[in-house]
User: Fold this.
Amino acid sequence: MRIGELSQLTGASIRSLRYYEQQGLLKSDRSDSGYREYNLTAVEQVKTIRFYLSLGLTTEEISGFLTCVMKNKEAFCQEILPIYRQKMAELDAQIGLLTGIRANLAERITSILEENEGSDKS
Amino acid sequence: MRIGELSQLTGASIRSLRYYEQQGLLKSDRSDSGYREYNLTAVEQVKTIRFYLSLGLTTEEISGFLTCVMKNKEAFCQEILPIYRQKMAELDAQIGLLTGIRANLAERITSILEENEGSDKS
DNA sequence: ATAAACCCTGACATTAGTGTCAGAGTCAAG
DNA sequence: CTTGACTCTGACACTAATGTCAGGGTTTAT
Assistant:
């Protein structure tokens, strides 16, 4: 199939499919005229890529284990666990940061509301 | 004082101070030679800017109430509460997203560890 | 008066994936 | 053979604050 069909079957934009290829995540044959040609396994592969992207992994990280997970169960791929753990650490750091900011913000909102008590015309 | 001194007194880089000015958050007089000249109140102002930035507000949002909070108590500035609330909503959305991803990731890690039980050579 | 330290503007880079456009070639159906 | 739909590459845009560099002027201390 050509790239338009693959795009429709996977939900990935044509632009994204070309980008995945550029990042080494997706291979394509070329027709005589230079059109990309995909076989059916590409559909699964793209869905897999998009799933890992949705977990917050980067294309570079995904490229480290994609070939393995396309052939085996995830648990078989040793490369994946350290990446998961690192991503967890990043997530925890980010969530912690945002949660701290949130608490700060909540406190300021409360403080403003309290200060405006009694002088609130509405 | 000139920009280098303001930078040292506030912890903001010279680049950032120029950026704040470009965004309309900071004003400066100019000497005959074109050097920026600041008075002492600039120190407080820059610290205030940096504080709001650390709360996750953008320079554009800050510009909406900075003049007011430099002159009054925060609670007096009506512009600030809706911005705080919107930022809270954004934070909650972002935290929720990351938390969901984190749960997904944690589940996958657990699943991998379970699948590798008993066949784990280490 | 000269060197070192300071300041100026303008510009490009950074992140990471995606949107979008231009200009050109290809394919399919009529 | 023509038209419309498809595809190609390459490039710029985006977010937002900051780093950094180049090329040039200024101030200060010696």
Remarks:
- The longest strand of chain A covers residues 29-30.
- Residues 23 and 108 of chain A are 45 Å apart (CA to CA).
- Chain A is about 65% helix and 5% strand.
- The two ends of chain A are 64 Å apart (CA to CA).
